[in-house]
Design brief:
This protein is mostly helical. The chain folds into 2 domains: 11-42; 45-126, Cytochrome Bc1 Complex, Chain D, domain 2 (Orthogonal Bundle), CATH 1.10.760. Helix content is 64%, strand content 0%. The protein is built from 7 helices and no strands. The protein has helices spanning 10-42, 45-52, 57-67, 69-72, 87-90, 93-102, 115-126. The model has no long low-confidence stretch (mean pLDDT 89). Bound molecules: heme C. Heme C (HEC) binds next to helix 3, helix 4, helix 5, helix 6 and helix 7.
Length: 129
Amino acid sequence: MTGQPLTSPEAPGNRRGLIAALLGMAAAACIVAVLLVLPAARADPYTRQTLELSGSSEHGGRLFRLNCAGCHGIAAQGLVGPNLHGVAARKSPRQLIQQVVSGRTPPMPRFQPEPQAMADLLAYLNGLV
Ligand code: HEC
């Protein structure tokens, strides 16, 4: 027996395993990053700001009677626009904000309330059970 250096059969496989593990970790990191970043990116700054505020349903009710009651009725019971009781069960806060600010469903106009006023309206709508 002469001194032939011993080549380990495991060495290349081990390296492949290490690369696979590193790739797996990188993929996992990407998934975590996407999950963390996407929901925040989906909400525009206006919506995010509005959702961070706590609203007064009393002030929201006043805003509603001034701006919305003409179509939705003084008690939100429905008139030209639909009855809004239970609307918070059908639509998420984000969708409710979109409904008010987007103007995507004429004849309902596009409103541009300050975030605090929007938060107040949201509190009022959430209270319409
Ligand atoms: C000019 C009439 C009009 C005014 C003013 C108006 N709306 Fe509407 N609104 C509508 C109509 C019509 C719809 C139904 C739109 C559709 O889905 O086609 C609607 C739909 C909605 C919905 C969704 C209801 C549902 O069942 O999904 C919400 C919430 C809402 N309005 C809130 C408001 C708020 C809050 C205001 C005041 C800031 C307002 N609206 C002012 C006419 C109006």
